[in-house]
Automatic annotation (TrEMBL), chain B:
The keyword Zinc does not apply. The chain crosses the membrane at residues 12-34, 108-133, 145-168, 196-219, 259-281, 301-327. It comes from Nocardioides pinisoli. CDD domains: TM_PBP2. Pfam families: BPD_transp_1. This is ABC transporter permease. InterPro entries: MetI-like, MetI-like_sf. Residues 106-324 form the ABC transmembrane type-1 domain. Belongs to the binding-protein-dependent transport system permease family. It is a multi-pass membrane protein. It is found in: Cell membrane.
Automatic annotation (TrEMBL), chain C:
It is found in: Cell membrane. One of its GO terms (molecular function) is ATP binding. PROSITE patterns: ABC_TRANSPORTER_1, ABC_TRANSPORTER_2. This is ABC transporter ATP-binding protein. Transmembrane segments: none annotated. Its main location: membrane. The keyword Zinc does not apply. It is a peripheral membrane protein. It comes from Nocardioides pinisoli. Residues 31-280 form the ABC transporter domain.
Length: 304, 334, 350
């Protein structure tokens, strides 16, 4: 019952594609600005990003600094001065968590950037050119899809004796690019059928120009949404793999390691060793997922 | 339908071969780059060369192509496929067959996965339908909020917290009390109890299924809302059908199609998640096998079990695909 | 029509319809001053703004108008299948045999649909449920409204498919919608509307989605069934040729309102409203089929921001000063016609 209307209005304005872009993003901004959830998640994301890149703003002393940790304080319960207590290594829990943020977040950003670039390139190639290109890319995607993320990542990380942000990023990108590629491919196929692409082609524009100017700009929205959510899930995946023992290695200060330390001790009464790291992980993942969710709602024309 | 199944079976062969090849290629590449796991196992205090060589021969790690970085080792792959076909997925560093260890532990993991699936499907679809029918009402907002929060909880976080807060703080007093029924205490146990092979897996099963529950609820909701707007629902209304037929018959079946697809993907997620859950709850399943192998740095076990799990995942995906076709005639008659 | 339902025991089932006092002398379907609003982000849109018409048994009423003028919304409001919200029926009456349907409770009203008033949609592919067989969908009304058994419903489905001229109906009942051609699917839609022998059929652009050659066949089928079964047919269309062939009377809509009503000969001979006149002039030959009504200069008003006065004013050749602030009522024009134009006499004379 809405379909007649939206089809009509879309048909009328898409001839001028610049117009449609501007008004689409204008609408999105309008939708976002009046959503409190958007502002909440955006604030959280900004806080997390500053913690990741400038931890000294939030906790003056790095737990890795000489003399920062004292084994005498190990597992110390929260006190008035140190409301988050001490880790098993006797470091201040709050600064360990703050300085551990970067480990997770920077990895997630690198992985998201890598998978997004790969996904956009491969998805556009498959969707726009179709035919043999599409077949090859889609079959390779299928094969990678046959390997569940955690299982695949686990095998290779277990084989690497040294694991750092680069090896982790590499493995995550290798196993993570498929879903974004699929989404981009679907979105490009939908865009390709729109009138303005035909119009541009009729005007003699080259393929590369059309892809750059029209196809990507009009197909990217679902990828942005998915990438935002994926950022959260990579943080979660890194923590999980670290927890399993195939992610970051000691003595790195990482959330997953802190949970692994706290998990058994929590049962013995040291609840703060478990609850605080968990709270950091959950809040961070939640912030990105919420942001992606709000973006998705704002980008969905059917919600207007 | 018969033709569709036959075609899916034929398509299945290149996919499974491709995936196994990918697994093989990436693991050989890693071995080529970082050195073989037998040496890694012993670290700096290496045993005599003869022992190393004997071990390497047993694990197929003496193939010269493993020294040539970039060589895909196709010959080795063909050998491996032959071994896989005869059920040989390698041996651990003590010489026990991986397949044997797997089969020994698989029933527990299967039970755990079944509990997780049942839980996430029943609760997830119910929540999704309720939210979709009452879009933007209280129940919808509640479901949307809870599911976002659930999705933000990694399995190991949820599991650790559940173990602490439910298994210990609630379950333990129940098990020690004389008024609470035995089954209730067992349902909230901190670990696996062979005397209660299903009940003691309930809490871990819920932990394992929680993430997917959220995903299923959201998927059901979105797809229900979408289908409620569709033309054929309008037709159903024009036919004078009541709300129960419109939702229960005309909308639900269409809305469950994407959910079924998701469940196919989800089986892979559950298999991965079972590593974590079994590690946390100390459940003697396949996941714990991997968990222990990681700690012992026992690479052949990790590769072997992950290979078996991948095959399990691909086969269950195939089953889900066929189920999907049973629900959607457009696929069946393509 | 041979009917397994009427000689079985199923008709004995009591439905809420039995409690309604239908007046067989009242007009079959009468719409009076129907108003439908949509609450949108840009404000209130009056999608239907005072549509009235009368339809008798055996009569075909054509509804004409540009895209977006509110034809489908009118049809769905009569059927009672608008989504509320966003839609709201702000006023008016829809009387079937004297009973105002808008005042009925939904639990009663749904029995009016299909039993008395049925609808045919434009795009049969999306209007049929993709996951059920055609036979199942055709038999559903009989099962749900008349309590027919599965076997009876299936027999009824075969009968209906036969009636709309689908060859090998016995085999095809177990096919799915996507296995039919476009024309065949539209026949299935027609069959589905006829399932419970309604008296009124509302067809919303039943042939627009079809190939030109198939359009004529489907239209002939519909018109033939209408004659044979003495149905009241409301035919919404863009195709002037179709209306000329099939309709007895015509209602022309513009921007949510009915601007002219007349019998089909009069309106083609001498339109009494500038909009109708422009429509007719926009096609080279009246008997030419497949023409779209798109060639009038300018755009219809935005429904959320309707100017005062006559809504056709900005595009009207006959407009004078008062047209911009005096909204024209629906004037009675000799010959039982109606026109919403202050200067209908002048238009009629020209
Ligand atoms: N769900 C909706 N929300 C808001 N406005 C709507 C909605 N559905 C319809 N409208 C409004 O109602 C008006 C009439 O729509 P309708 O579908 O009845 O047009 P129509 O005459 O059937 O056009 P067409 O010939 O294209 O089918 C549209 O212009 C639109 O503005
Ligand atoms: S009332 Fe005036 S503007 Fe409206 S149709 Fe008549 S002449 Fe044209
Ligand atoms: Mg319409």
């Amino acid at each position: 019952m809405t379909e007649t209307m939206s089809a009509k209005s879309a048909g009328a304005s898409e001839i001028a594609d610049e117009g449609v872009n501007r008004s689409l993003w204008g609408d999105v901004r309008y939708e976002l600005a009046r959503k409190p959830l958007f502002w909440v998640s955006l604030m959280l994301v900004l806080v997390i990003l500053t913690m990741a890149f400038f931890p000294q703003l939030w906790a003056s002393e790095s737990p890795n600094a000489r003399g920062a940790c004292d084994l005498a304080n190990a597992r110390g319960k929260p006190t008035w001065d140190h409301p988050f207590g001490y880790t098993t290594a006797g470091c201040d829990m709050w600064s360990s968590l703050v300085w551990g943020t970067g480990k997770s977040v920077i990895l997630a950003i690198l992985v998201t950037a890598g998978t997004t670039i790969l996904g956009v390139l491969l998805g556009t190639a498959a969707g726009y050119y179709g035919g043999g290109t599409d077949t090859i890319i889609s079959r390779i995607t299928d094969i990678f899809f046959g390997l569940p993320f955690i299982l695949g990542a686990l095998v290779f990380l277990a084989l690497f004796p040294e694991r750092n942000v680069y090896t982790l990023t590499l493995v995550f990108v290798v196993f993570g690019w498929t879903s974004l590629t699929r989404v981009m491919r679907g979105s490009v196929i939908a865009t390709k059928q729109k009138d303005f692409i035909d119009a541009a082609r009729a005007l003699g524009a080259s393929d590369l120009f059309i892809i750059r100017k029209h196809v990507i700009a009009n197909s990217i929205a679902p990828v942005i949404v998915l990438a935002t959510i994926a950022l959260g899930t990579y943080i979660s995946a890194e923590a999980t793999l670290t927890f399993l023992g195939v992610g970051y290695q000691r003595p790195a200060a990482s959330w997953g390691l802190l949970v692994a330390d706290g998990q058994t001790l929590a049962l013995a009464g040291f609840w703060h060793l478990l609850v605080y790291p968990c709270a950091f992980i959950v809040t961070t993942v939640l912030a990105f997922i919420l942001l992606g969710d709000v973006l998705r709602d704002a980008l969905d024309p059917r919600n207007r | 339908m018969g033709r569709y199944v036959a075609r899916r079976l034929i398509q299945f062969i290149p996919v499974i071969l491709g995936t196994l090849f990918l697994l093989h290629m990436l693991s050989t590449l890693t071995i080529q780059i970082v050195g073989d796991p037998v040496r890694a196992l012993f670290g700096p205090n290496a045993p005599p060369q003869a022992i190393i060589e004997e071990l390497q021969a047993r694990y197929n790690l003496d193939d010269p192509c493993l020294e040539q970085t970039g060589n895909p080792c196709v010959g080795l792959f063909v050998d491996r496929i032959g071994q896989y076909a005869s059920g040989d997925f390698g041996v651990n560093f003590r010489g026990r067959s991986v397949m044997e260890m797997f089969l020994e532990r698989f029933p527990v993991t299967a039970r755990l996965t079944v509990i997780a699936l049942a839980f996430e499907i029943v609760v997830g679809i119910t929540a999704g339908v309720l939210a979709g029918l009452k879009k933007d009402k209280l129940i919808d907002n509640l479901v949307r909020f809870t599911t976002v929060v659930l999705i933000a909880f990694p399995v190991f976080v949820f599991g650790s917290l559940a173990l602490l807060l439910v298994g210990l703080k609630i379950g333990l007093p129940l098990r020690n009390s004389d008024w609470a029924p035995e089954w209730l205490g067992q349902m909230l146990n901190v670990g696996y109890d062979p005397d209660y092979p299903w009940l003691s897996l309930v809490l871990p099963g819920i932990v394992l299924g929680a993430f997917s529950l959220a995903a299923i609820a959201r998927l059901t909701r979105t797809s229900l809302i979408e289908n409620l707007r569709s033309d054929y629902v309008r037709t159903a209304r024009a036919k004078g059908l009541g709300a129960r037929d419109i939702v229960g018959v005309h909308t639900l079946r269409n809305s469950l199609i994407p959910v079924i697809t998701y469940i196919g993907i989800d089986i892979g997620f559950l298999l991965g998640g079972s590593l974590v859950t079994e590690g946390i709850f100390n459940i003697p399943g396949v996941g714990q096998l991997v968990f222990l192998a990681i700690q012992a740095n026992d690479a052949p076990v990790i590769i072997g079990v992950v290979t078996i799990l991948t095959v399990v995942f691909l086969v269950s995906n195939l089953v889900v695909d066929i189920l999907y076709a049973a629900l959607d005639p457009r696929i069946r008659y393509d | 029509m041979t009917d397994i339902l009427s000689n079985g025991h199923h008709r004995a089932i009591r439905t809420p319809l039995d409690a309604l006092a239908f007046d067989e002398d009242a007009p079959l379907l009468e719409v009076r001053d129907l108003q439908v609003e949509f609450h949108t982000r840009d404000g209130l849109a009056h999608a239907v703004n005072g549509v009235s018409f009368v339809l008798e048994a055996g009569e075909t009423l054509g509804i004409l108008g540009e895209s977006g003028c509110g034809k489908s919304v009118t049809a769905q409001a009569i059927m009672g299948i608008l989504d509320t919200p966003p839609a709201k029926i702000a006023g008016g009456e829809v009387r079937y045999r004297g009973v105002d349907l808008l005042s009925l409770d939904e639990s009663v009203r749904r029995h009016v649909r299909a039993n008395r008033i049925a609808m045919i949609f434009q795009d049969a592919l999306s209007a049929l449920n993709p996951v059920f067989t055609v036979g199942w969908q055709l038999g559903e009304p009989a099962r749900k409204h008349s309590g027919a058994s599965r076997a009876d419903a299936r027999r009824r489905a075969v009968e209906l498919l036969d009636m709309v001229g689908i060859p090998a109906a016995k085999e095809r009942v177990s096919d799915y919608p996507h296995q039919f051609s476009g024309g065949m699917r539209q026949r299935v839609m027609i069959a589905m509307a006829l399932a419970l022998e309604p008296d009124v059929i509302i067809a919303d652009e039943p042939t627009t989605a079809l190939d030109v050659t198939v359009q004529a066949q489907v239209m002939d089928l519909l018109a033939g069934l209408q004659k044979e079964l003495q149905l009241g047919l409301v035919l919404i269309t863009h195709d002037m040729g179709v209306v000329a062939d099939v309709a007895d009377k015509i209602c022309v809509m513009y921007a949510g309102g009915a601007v002219e009503q007349a019998n089909v000969y009069d309106i083609y001979e001498k339109p009494a409203h500038p909009y109708t006149k422009a429509l007719l002039e926009s096609i080279p030959r009246i008997d030419q089929k497949g023409q779209d009504l798109t060639v009038i200069k300018g755009l219809p008003p935005v429904l959320t921001d309707r100017p005062p006065g006559c809504s056709f004013n900005p595009r009207c050749q006959y407009a004078r000063g008062n047209c911009a602030h005096d909204e024209p009522p629906l004037y009675d024009v000799p010959g039982g016609r109606k026109s919403a134009c202050h200067y209908w006499e002048e238009v009629l004379g020209s």
